[in-house]
Amino acid sequence: MAAAPTPEMVRIRELIANDPAGGQSPTGGWDQAWKEKVTPWDAGDVQPAFRELLDERWEDVGVSLDSLKDGKALVAGCGRGCDAAFIAQHGIETVGLDLSPTAVEVARAHLAKTPDAPTNINFETGDFFKFTPPTGGFSLAFDYTFFCAINPSMRASWGKRYGEVIRPNGVLICLAFPIDGNREGGPPFSVSEEAYDAALGGDFDKIYSKQPTKLAEGRAAGRDRMLVYKRKSE
Ligand SMILES: C[S@@+](CC[C@H](N)C(=O)[O-])C[C@H]1O[C@@H](n2cnc3c(N)ncnc32)[C@H](O)[C@@H]1O
Fold it and tell me: pLDDT tens for residues 61-120?
């Protein structure tokens, strides 16, 4: 059983439900959540599991990080942008994309006051399903709490879209959350490794699946899983 929703989660669900576009209009539910500062997902820092993967476990993935540096990285639904900035700090030019103009303002302001902020990063307002990717596609993407934020009916489109915007042999890292329980009425909607596999199976091969040991503050073990997929070569 998933835990009972917090008042903040209840408010987000209300905002998304009241958005005629199901949360997918630029000034709809998500933007309103950012305006009201109802952002319980926002850790204000890099996800520890992502730090663990890039800095301690990357060898197990079997793809050289250097081989991805000639392309750009994408973090869709980037929110405050800490994970995007973390990728940029690894020497990959990064785009943090969010549907909500308020989230993008927050991300830019946060970066501006970050000591030694990377300069190879841009935060852009845009819809993941419609924005224009760089010519040739991204070499790397990171997805955390974006898959669980969209309606499950959009999951196949989500997978197809990553297949369009990531270049052949490019890498998609998914920090799967929340994989516990059977949650009704999201966001966040419950996810599972199988749901990622099903959405991505057409264009990607899974090359890594492991439980992270470094978790977000207060997070119980068993709610996250780190998954890495490689775009099939054409
Ligand atoms: C649950 S929040 C997660 C934010 C961030 N990944 C984090 O972990 O802090 C989901 C984010 O996805 C954004 N979003 C929702 N639909 C989107 C879309 N179609 N394109 C881009 N961003 C979207 C929302 O505005 C929101 O900032």
Answer: 999 999 999 999 999 999 999 999 999 999 999 999 999 999 999 999 999 999 999 999
Looking at the domain that runs over 43-231, which CATH code has it been given? 3.40.50.150
Whether ligand 1 lies within 6 angstroms of the CB of 24 is answered as yes
Q: How much distance in Å is there from the Cα of 136 to the middle of ligand 1?
A: 24
**DSSP 8-state symbol, 62:** -
Expressed in angstroms and rounded, the spacing between residue 86 Cα and the centre of ligand 1 is 17
Give the model confidence (pLDDT) of 157-183 as tens digits.
Answer: 999 999 999 999 999 999 999 998 777
Structure tokens at 28: 């709809």
Q: CB under 8 Å to 145, separation ≥6 — which residues?
A: 41, 77, 79, 175, 177, 188
Q: What is the edge-to-edge ordering of all strands in the sheet holding 121-125?
A: 121-125, 94-98, 73-76, 138-144, 166-176, 225-231, 204-210
What whole-number distance in Å separates Cα of residue 167 and Cα of residue 149?
24
Q: Hunting for tokens 């999951």 — which residue is that?
A: 155
Residue with structure tokens 């369009």?
164
In this structure, what token pair is assigned to residue 79?
């929110």
Reported as a single tens digit per residue, the pLDDT across 190-228 is 999 999 999 999 999 999 999 999 998 888 888 999 999
Nearest ligand 1 atom to the CA of 31 is 25
Distance CA 213, CA 208 (A): 15
Judge contact between 39 and 15, C-beta under 8 A.
no
